[in-house]
Specification:
Layout (H helix, E strand, L loop, with lengths): L2 E5 L2 E4 L4 E8 L6 E8 L6 E6 L5 E3 L7 E6 L4 E6 L8 E9 L8 E2 L3 E6 L1
Parallel strand pairs: 2-11
Antiparallel strand pairs: 1-3, 3-8, 4-5, 4-9, 5-6, 7-8, 9-10, 9-11
């Protein structure tokens, strides 16, 4: 059974940092594209950053230079280092996995972890 379990969320002041982790099981982790999405209250879920099976990364403009996505294939874990956090980063953050290219319609999803940034 494929499972993604996020951790590391919490409450932080603006300007602070958090590191999210996503532990994967039940899949050949190194063969999957991985990503972080987020959903703020009243908004649709959006891509934050993604990393291919080969290690190429992409981050959306709103987090570029502040957030870093990385993966440890030996530990089957995905990370998101979030620095210089802003109140607008407040959301539930979801880990996602898919063979090939991430696609919201049929990604494998974790349960989400809440990130709250206070001003």
């Amino acid at each position: 059974q494929v499972q993604l379990v996020e951790s590391g969320g919490g409450l932080v002041q603006a300007g602070g940092s958090l590191r999210l982790s996503c532990a994967a099981s039940g899949l050949t982790f190194g063969m999957y594209a991985m990503g972080w999405y987020r959903q703020a209250p009243g908004k649709e879920r959006e891509l934050v950053a993604r990393i291919t099976s080969g290690g190429s990364t992409y981050a959306v403009d709103s987090v570029k230079g502040r957030f870093t996505i990385s993966r440890d294939n030996a530990k089957m874990t995905l990370y998101l280092q979030m620095n210089s956090l802003k109140p607008e980063d407040t959301a539930v953050y979801y880990c996602a996995a898919r063979r090939g290219v991430l696609r919201s319609a049929d990604n494998i999803w974790g349960q989400g972890t809440q990130v709250t940034v206070s001003s």
